[in-house]
Automatic annotation (TrEMBL):
GO terms for molecular function: serine-type endopeptidase activity. Residues 27-56 are annotated as: Disordered. InterPro entries: Lon_prtase_N, Lon_prtase_N_sf, PUA-like_sf. This is Endopeptidase La. Its EC number is 3.4.21.53. Residues 241-275 form a coiled coil. Residues 41-53 have a biased composition (Basic residues). Residues 27-36 have a biased composition (Polar residues). Keywords: Coiled coil, Hydrolase. It holds the Pfam family LON_substr_bdg.
Amino acid sequence: MAFSQLLPSPSSPYLTHHKNPTLNLSFSPSNFTSTPLPHPNSHHRRHHRHRKLTSTATVHCQSEKHETNIPPQNDVVELPLFPLPLVLFPGAILPLQIFEYRYRIMMHTLLQTDLRFGVIYTDATTGTADVGCVGEVVKHERLVDDRFFIICKGQERFRVTRIVRTKPYLVAEVVWLEDRPSGNGEEDLEGLASEVESHMKDVIRLSNRLNGKPEKEAGDLRRNLFPTPFSFFVGSTFEGAPREQQALLELEDTMVRLKREKETLRNTLNYLSAASAVKDVFPSSSS
């Protein structure tokens, strides 16, 4: 089933959609946070959880502790869905501009109930995915023409099991997803996460070099995150490759996700190394 999508305005400072077909790693700490954003009193009001979502899992990607409260896998709830040409990960921050009428209706409903909706990836080629991520509105600004600027934070992942209705906006029954234990438990998740972080730092260094920026060492990208939330953070940096991001989001094994991210980063590093070598031999070709 194909669903029409709301695209952020190209001129909006809240733009989050990237059309670059190449892997574009974005490492801004502001795009991934472990603590709630402050709520401006004039634009945000905290509401109690809607009863339909009282059993919702909450994933806190904290610096010193990783807490999860995951309901049983067969726990089915209803969730309003927002198909977008981008992928939201748990812990990631997503700014959006809401101007299409049906999604303005959805926002009015959310502000009176739960403040949470499902962000689900869609494009013209592959259609709408079955797996998405809950976005919780942490800031909002309502304009005079009834448009909204919102900032939401990624929470738990879900899988769509049944479409409940399509008008005025999409609502589906979903079940929550969580990562299963990896393999036989003998592999070193911490070691793999450290390797991925090292690859990320190398990619940043070479990217800076190719863009004429100082080749300073990247700081602490891991920020003491446990392997699972760290794997979500890594996936959130792969801007410009939404289908790969969607594949990472759908995986239910942290080890497999980190291995795939490591391979992607290694391939990117090989490409950047070759491009850097060409730049050294033919400096004028980079201008």
